[in-house]
């Protein structure tokens, strides 16, 4: 099962589209349906897209460098921009979960995101940035403090609020 395009995908896409990406080296972790990776490619970036689910990697254009990887495990080099719309639902969430690994972010919904934030700076150029999606359904507040995340955008839906958060490497 490949994660479909949803509101979270579109919110991250909107924020990626605002950026000047021509000639930039970018990395998408957890590309799923691939829309964000394709958008960055169309904006002229040199794109690497990863997913832990091999099915997600079978349908991307040749120009995109694909890697099957658990977060950064197989990733090499440094990037100007790293984006990740992580699995962010807490494990007790009662939505009908089809393809568990694409939705669940650990007990509190932040464990995968936390692991990402602990490592992402090793893969960013100086002045590079990481953009992630964070949901109000997860226990996200501790992450904001711990990693000094900046809220770049937010959108309210009937059952949750989604944030695009940014981490900058000085
Ligand atoms: C919420 S979906 C986002 C998919 C797509 N980027 C989007 O925005 O629609 C999360 C994606 O992360 C992948 N994923 C989950 N855990 C991962 C991990 N540890 N390393 C890499 N990818 C992971 C899932 O397979 C899924 O494709």
Layout of SSEs?
Blueprint: H1 7-17, E1 25-29, H2 35-42, E2 46-51, E3 65-68, E4 79-84, H3 111-119, E5 124-135, H4 141-147, E6 150-156, E7 161-168
Parallel strand pairs: 1-2, 1-4, 2-3, 4-5
Antiparallel strand pairs: 5-7, 6-7
Helix pairs in contact: 1-2
Notes on the structure:
The chain is an alpha/beta fold and 170 residues long. The protein has a single domain, classed as Rossmann fold (3-Layer(aba) Sandwich). It is built from four helices and seven strands, in the order αβαβββαβαββ. The protein has a seven-stranded mixed β-sheet with strand order 3-2-1-4-5-7-6, with helices on one face. Helix 1 packs parallel to helix 2. It is globular and about 35 Å long. The N and C termini lie far apart (38 Å). About 3% of the residues have low confidence. Bound molecules: S-adenosylmethionine. S-adenosylmethionine (SAM) binds next to helix 1 and strand 2.
